[in-house]
């Protein structure tokens, strides 16, 4: 178009010559835009933040607001890490085809769950109070958008439940806001077509049923295709130990005496071992097990095993079944456990010694070294637990429980004189391969293995921390020769990776110094001196090779001067700091004159009347110098002392940690830190403590507690007066409070609370309940659980069963927070 010239009267029609009162579209739009701007100018920033509202104007009649929409994002709010936050937006006006949506616009990342106007998220882990901002946006029918924001201030993680009170009833009790579901019990079928468990003593086929005495467990995520999915929180394999049996409830009548019936022995043996079971979430954390899964498997005392490491092939492992000493059958008394960084399970053989029988004639046919080894490892029974070897049978899997040398001319290929040396190991299992053969890892030593916590850290050797569960025994660690390679986490041949990290390395025993320092003493042939003679072992003991050290690890611990502890049980590690926690469950043999710095108390269970010892136990923690698994020195303190606070409300020599009825406990056993894959295991991880108590059960059943612990060195030195002029200096952590330790669960009568794990997202917890109601008889059981957990009334003769429970938070949040 040409530029306008005042002298030229030409116009292209821009001049309005219509004098009617009809308004133009241009004027209407201009007025609407001007009004909208005035509204926004009139609503300052403070007002908008308070209202959480955005406004939009779109084309339409001046007196008709149908083209407008407004949105509201709700009020600002505050919460803490791990808790569920619900966001709800509202829209006024006509919304277009694009659905309203939420988006996080600042702060640490949170995963929004849901779509549309209502979404939720789990507050992420934060070290200090932190603001997260979320924007809610809607689009009108004319394509213009309006937004509003809301701010959620997240504080660091805090225990988010009311403490459960002492309880002596026959149920599992959890805080308000949580739900307990029983999923698998003793005898539940694990194969297609196998009948449901009748629970009357007539059931058979326990090689295809869930075993007894549920103990340590680990959840392994399973993909839709049936492979490893470490992030899956809706489908997985639960691998769980079965430590022992409640014999009387397994049979229709009293167990056979004298020569045991073979069928009864087979049943009892198969109730030991390990179960691998597939579990699925049907939605909303509604869990059940899949009876027909191809992954389901029982590993029992009959299952073939391979030996690996320094003792494989040793003369001390040779038997009639394996004259070469490289193979064995089964696993027994499986207590605590471990999970490797390459997706395998470690089950630990604890009190194996009592299952073996040795006749009187055996002593004369043994060498002095063999007799010393048998005594140091507790193989002394003349019948063996449950008298299995008395059965009249040709089945050598049963006859092997008699470790008596058969004759003066026989060799180890003719009998089972060394069968006891085939037990007492850490056993590695690949849960994803039902056809794999478990491997016994002899480099990790042989003793009363309670657990084997595995610490995997970038650019470090792999560390395995293990307790020997007996009074006066030791804490051990094994450090791999190989440095961790991250690619091994996803290896297809998982047991081959186990060979890499568990067959070659160095085994150590721990020495705790009185000043809060400690040292790891290598148990390496050529570096371990002979065990010095003593009253019980007047000949001492000289090691022949590394295999000898692995088989007779207790002697090696003696020889290097390891510190005797009060029944070292579970080990677990803080996923953030790497600090290792060791539960010391109790020690009836600890006297005022035999205390030491890490085991400083000897007192009466009941003031003035109880037996002297350490009946309530305590928890020690260590931090490796340099925070490396291969460190040879460490610092330690006592994190927490168990006590019955009703008996000892304020005695500083007994209730050292200041426990109250809301958080007192006795005999800590299981211990577990929440997984690093969820908020519960980040920044300041949750520690879970399970109990196996007999000293405080007049007050309450066994329990599970949740803690937010500090760190090694957060307390100081104290001196404990054990009476009679016997004092003991020690190092203690900060005292308990309602904010850092609370009782989360109490189990049914007679039980022990055992294994524990969570799904990777921390929103489902699995807990084992062992030997409930075992104080009674077949006619009158001591309890009936899990019958009755659902609110029904069991019959008077309903037999109790060990079982696994699932615990979920009703609002879907992270357990414990």
From TrEMBL:
Instruction: List, as start-end ranges, the regions of compositional bias called Polar residues.
Output: 584-615
One Pfam family, short name: PhoX
Record's InterPro entries? PhoX
Q: Where is this region: Disordered?
A: 584-620
Name the Gene3D superfamilies for this protein. 2.60.40.3010
Name listed for the protein in its UniProt record: Phosphatase
Origin organism is Novosphingobium panipatense
């Amino acid at each position: 178009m040409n530029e306008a010239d005042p002298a030229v009267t030409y116009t292209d029609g821009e001049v309005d010559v219509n004098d009617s009162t009809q308004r133009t579209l241009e004027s209407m739009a201009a007025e609407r835009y001007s009004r909208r701007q005035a509204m926004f100018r009139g609503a300052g920033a403070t007002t908008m933040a308070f209202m959480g509202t955005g406004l939009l104007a779109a084309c339409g009649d001046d007196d008709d607001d149908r083209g407008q929409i407004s949105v509201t994002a709700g009020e600002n709010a505050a919460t803490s890490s791990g808790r569920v936050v619900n966001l709800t937006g509202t829209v006024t006006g006509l919304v277009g085809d694009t659905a309203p949506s939420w988006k996080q616009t600042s702060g640490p990342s949170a995963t929004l769950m849901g779509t549309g106007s209502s979404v939720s998220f789990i507050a992420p882990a934060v070290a200090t109070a932190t603001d997260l901002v979320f924007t809610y946006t809607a689009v009108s029918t004319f394509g213009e958008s309006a937004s509003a924001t809301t701010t959620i201030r997240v504080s660091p993680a805090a225990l988010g439940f009311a403490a459960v009170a002492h309880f002596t009833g026959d149920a599992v009790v959890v805080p308000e806001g949580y739900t307990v579901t029983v999923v698998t019990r003793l005898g539940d079928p694990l194969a297609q077509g196998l009948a449901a468990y009748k629970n009357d003593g007539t059931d058979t086929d326990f090689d295809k049923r869930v075993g007894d005495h549920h103990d340590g467990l680990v959840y392994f995520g399973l993909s839709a295709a049936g492979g490893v999915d470490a992030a899956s929180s809706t489908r997985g394999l639960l691998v769980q130990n079965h430590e022992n049996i409640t014999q009387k409830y397994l049979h229709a009548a009293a167990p056979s005496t004298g020569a045991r019936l073979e069928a009864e022995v087979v049943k009892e043996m198969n109730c030991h071992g390990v179960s691998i079971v597939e579990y699925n979430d049907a939605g909303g954390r509604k869990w059940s097990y899949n009876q027909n899964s191809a992954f389901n498997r029982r590993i029992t005392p009959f299952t073939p095993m391979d030996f690996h490491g320094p003792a494989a092939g040793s003369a001390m492992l040779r038997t009639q079944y394996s004259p070469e000493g490289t193979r064995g059958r089964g696993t027994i008394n499986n207590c605590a456990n471990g999970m490797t960084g390459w997706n395998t399970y470690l089950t630990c053989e604890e009190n194996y010694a009592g299952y073996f029988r040795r006749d009187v004639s055996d002593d004369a046919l043994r060498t002095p070294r063999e007799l010393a080894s048998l005594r140091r490892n507790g193989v002394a029974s003349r019948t063996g637990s449950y008298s299995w070897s008395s059965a009249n049978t040709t089945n050598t899997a049963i006859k092997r429980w008699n470790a008596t040398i058969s004759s003066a001319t026989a060799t180890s290929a003719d009998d089972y004189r060394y069968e006891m040396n085939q037990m007492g190991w850490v056993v590695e299992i690949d849960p994803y391969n039902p056809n794999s053969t478990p491997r016994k890892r002899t480099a990790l030593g042989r003793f009363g293995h309670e657990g084997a916590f595995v610490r995997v850290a970038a650019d470090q050797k792999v560390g395995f921390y293990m307790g020997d569960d007996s009074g006066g025994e030791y804490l051990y660690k094994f450090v791999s020769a190989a440095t961790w390679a991250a690619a091994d986490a996803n290896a297809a041949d998982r047991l081959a990776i186990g060979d890499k990290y568990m067959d070659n390395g160095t085994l150590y025993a721990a020495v705790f110094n009185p000043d809060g320092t400690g040292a790891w003493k290598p148990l390496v042939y050529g570096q371990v001196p002979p065990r010095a003679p003593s009253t019980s072992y007047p000949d001492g003991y000289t090691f022949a090779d590394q295999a000898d050290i692995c088989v007779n690890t207790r002697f090696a611990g003696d020889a290097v001067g390891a510190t005797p502890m009060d029944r070292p049980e579970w080990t677990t590690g803080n996923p953030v700091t790497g600090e290792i926690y060791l539960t010391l469950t109790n020690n009836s043999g600890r006297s005022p004159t035999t205390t030491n710095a890490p085991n400083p108390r000897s007192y009466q269970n009941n003031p003035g009347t109880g037996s002297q010892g350490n009946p309530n136990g305590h928890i020690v923690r260590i931090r490796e110098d340099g925070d490396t698994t291969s460190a040879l020195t460490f610092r330690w303190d006592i994190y927490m002392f168990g006590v019955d606070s009703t008996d000892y409300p304020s005695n500083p020599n007994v209730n050292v940690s200041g426990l109250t009825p809301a958080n007192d406990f006795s005999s800590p056993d299981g211990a577990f830190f929440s997984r690093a894959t969820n908020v519960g295991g980040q920044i300041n991880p949750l520690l879970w403590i399970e109990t196996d108590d007999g000293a405080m059960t007049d007050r309450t059943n066994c329990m599970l507690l949740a803690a937010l612990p500090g760190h090694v060195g957060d307390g100081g030195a104290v001196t404990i007066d054990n009476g009679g002029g016997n004092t003991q200096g020690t190092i203690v952590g900060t005292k308990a409070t309602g904010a850092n330790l609370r009782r989360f669960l109490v189990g049914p009568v007679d039980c022990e609370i055992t294994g524990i794990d969570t799904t990777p997202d921390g929103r489902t917890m699995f807990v084992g309940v062992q030997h409930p109601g075992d104080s009674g008889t077949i006619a009158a059981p001591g309890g009936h659980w899990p019958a009755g957990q659902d609110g029904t009334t069991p019959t008077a003769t309903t037999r109790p069963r060990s079982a696994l429970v699932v615990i979920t938070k009703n609002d879907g949040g992270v357990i414990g927070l």
